[in-house]
Structures are given as structure tokens and as C-alpha cells.
Amino acid sequence: MSTSVISEKAKIGKNVSIGHFCIIDEDVVIGDNTVIKNYVELRKGTIVGEDCFLDSRVTSSGNCVIGNNVTVRYDSIIARGVSIGDNTYISPKTMTNNVNTEMSQIGGAQIGKNVFIGTNCVLQHGIKIGDNTILGSLSFINKDIPSDEIWFGNPAKFYRKNVPNEDSDNIHLSR
Questions:
Q1: What distance in Å separates the CA atoms of residue 46 and residue 31, rounded to the nearest whole number?
Q2: Buried (b) or exposed (e) across 54-63, using 16+ Cβ within 10 A?
């Protein structure tokens, strides 16, 4: 049996597809033409833009904003207070955090537009990721990353400037 629990207080846009065994809490907003796969949990106050793709087992802790045309791949965690800019691609098993070492909630990462985040990245609390940035797989991001740069490693280190392709508006990859 495939049952999803969708709050009557959630606002679901037009042409939204919601998979099996999802939980959509109250005060969640999902924009038009968004696809939500199986076992996704969107807690209270999550806002998902238009034309997004949330793969199976994506979880949001609530009170976060996901922009338009964003892809969040399998088993990623979007912490409370995270914001994700338009045209961003988040690879599988990415984790964001909003709690510091004293267990105080100080806010999630602020991720810019046209960002690519590789598989198994961890983004610490309260950091800012600039627009047009690429973060390599298995990276631990523990400080602000300027726009138009490529970083990777544990902890992540600067690799080189990112020169966007003039023929492309963003780095949004296929789903």
C-alpha cells in the first residue's frame, strides 16, 4: 500500500507529482511542476519553488527555502534555516547542519544560485556559498565560499576560479 500523509494546511501547486510514503507537514509550500519522489519528508515551514526535483529519501527539517529549478538528489538532508538559490544541483547524500558545537541552532547554510554540490558533502551551520560555485564530492565545507570558485577536500580548500560557460545560464544537470 502506498500512502503519503499530506497536511490539509500544505499548499501544493499545479502539476506537482508526489511519490509514495511521503510526509508533507503543515505550512509547507510546493511550487508548480515540482516532482517529489518516494519517502520524502518536508517538515513545517519548508518552501519548495517551481520546477524542482526532490529525489527519494530527501528530508527537510523545516523552515527552509528551496528556490526554483533546484534538484536535490537521493538521501540528502536540508537542515532548518537552509536556503538554496535557483538552478542549484545537490548530489546524493549531501548533509547540511544548523547546530553548533554547543547544540545551539544558529541557522543553516545559505546556498547561492547556480551552485553544484557533489556527492556526500557536508555543509556546516551558518555558512554562505556564493553563486556559480562548485563543491567537489566528499567535501567538508566549514567556512564561507565566495562566488565563482571551485572548492573540494576535507576541510574544503580553494582549487580555482569557476569560469561559467557563456553558452549556459546555469549548471543544472538532468534528473
A1: 11
A2: bbbbbbbbbb
Per-residue cell: 99: 547546530
Q: Which residue has the cell 518516494?
A: 38
Give me the numbers of helices (H) and strands (E) for the chain, helices first please.
0, 24
Question: Residue 30 is inside which H or E element, if any?
Answer: strand 29-30
Question: Digits of tens for pLDDT over the chain (175 positions)?
Answer: 568 999 999 999 999 999 999 999 999 999 999 999 999 999 999 999 999 999 999 999 999 999 999 999 999 999 999 999 999 999 999 999 886 666 666 778 999 999 999 999 999 988 999 999 999 999 999 999 999 999 999 999 999 999 866 555 545 444 5
C-alpha–C-alpha distance, residues 104 and 122, integer Å: 18
- State whether the Cα torsion 147-148-153-157 is positive or negative: negative
